[in-house]
Amino acid sequence: MTTIGQQDNSDATSSQWRNHGVRVIPSGQLDPxxxxxxxxxxxxxxxxxxxxxxxxxxxxxxxxxxxxxxxHHHGALExxxxxxxxRARMRWGNQLEFVAEAGPGDFIFVPPYVPHQExxxxxxxxxxxxxxxxxxxxxxxxxxxxPVEAPETVHWxxxxxxxx
Length: 164
Prior knowledge:
Elements: H1 4-20, E1 41-46, H2 48-51, E2 57-63, E3 72-73, E4 79-85, E5 88-92, E6 98-102, E7 107-110, E8 116-120, E9 127-133, E10 141-142, E11 152-153
Parallel strand pairs: 6-11
Antiparallel strand pairs: 1-2, 2-9, 3-10, 4-7, 4-9, 5-6, 5-8
């Protein structure tokens, strides 16, 4: 049984949730005023300033056809990239000596402090991705790295996924 006091509290909570509950950020209202890396366009959807997020940053990234970003890392943050459209070629390592590719529907995980570079593997269509990071602020540390010419291809292998 609900008492009147509990119902009043529920109404107050419901009223508070109206303005501080679920938020929908329309695609046309993403904020390009976020940390950038040459070769890509990032836009924030979810962060501390926009929605009060405390532990997550989310947005989009577009890499133009045949473009590659500058080498960079994201400090202590973990990053997840979901490929929506196009083909992503990721290079990583101290000299960007490792490479892997991902296509639509694939996820990419980038651990903290890993130097990396995103490359649009297509010469005629943009690479469009959703990006999520483990903090509400965008951290980008651009690096001056001379990449090796022939990176080593790395396949995802674990105890339940053998080498292709």
